[in-house]
Design goal:
The chain has one domain: Lipoprotein localisation LolA/LolB/LppX (outer membrane lipoprotein receptor (LolB), chain A), CATH 2.50.20.10. It has about 220 residues and is of the alpha+beta class. Helices cover about 20% and strands about 45% of the residues. A 12-stranded mixed β-sheet has the order 7-8-9-10-11-1-2-3-4-5-6-12. Strand 9 (about 155-160) and strand 10 form a beta hairpin. The longest helix has about 35 residues, at about 1-40. It has helices at about 1-40, 205-210, and strands at about 45-55, 60-70, 75-80, 80-85, 90-95, 100-105, 125-135, 140-145, 155-160, 170-175, 180-190, 210-215. The radius of gyration is 21 Å and the shape is globular.
Length: about 220
Amino acid sequence: MLKKQFLLIVLMTTFGLGSYAQNSSKAKALLDEVYNKVTSYDNIYIDFKSTLENTEANIKQETKGNVTLSGDKYVLDYLGAKQLSDGKKVYTVVPDNEEVTIENVSEDANTVTPSKMLTFYRTGHNYEWDTLQNVGGRKIQYVKLTPIDSNTELKSILLGIDTQTKHIYKLIQTGNNGTKTSITVNSFKTNQALSNTLFNFDVKKYENDGYYIIRN
């Protein structure tokens, strides 16, 4: 009897691990498709809605923004500020404070910048196949990402992927403190005609306008 029970436990464990490995590899394969699709474009424009929520603290904030991405370069308009990166420097303009902050591009692999927002999942996470949703006739497959680093403040990330276009539709990030941040893509455009000077930043212009320039 004990032998039969032991054999049953071994079989259940083996099939359970096999199923997890299958789900993990399936999730990774889908994320690889997303990565290959994203990196095939010359540039990407995204209009999005962001929601920050913490039930215990009774906080719920919603805002909109947009970002144009081209390789390591980007222009982000979000929370009343504008951030631009030419691939070497990052310029953050806050009109309310009449300030411009200039700093080097972060070399920290764990820092998720706008230029990495569609590719950050490539490293540092375990993958798990999650739920499938129907959103206005679109099939959105979710993949759960769990940070490998146990010291991170992040508990998990859910990436919702349009199964037809292989574009990211939604990102839901849950922190260890219970704060949940969601980003929903309203518009996703690719290979737009961009100005040659879009990613150039004219510091002199802001100096002449009386902005305080902070160089970090």
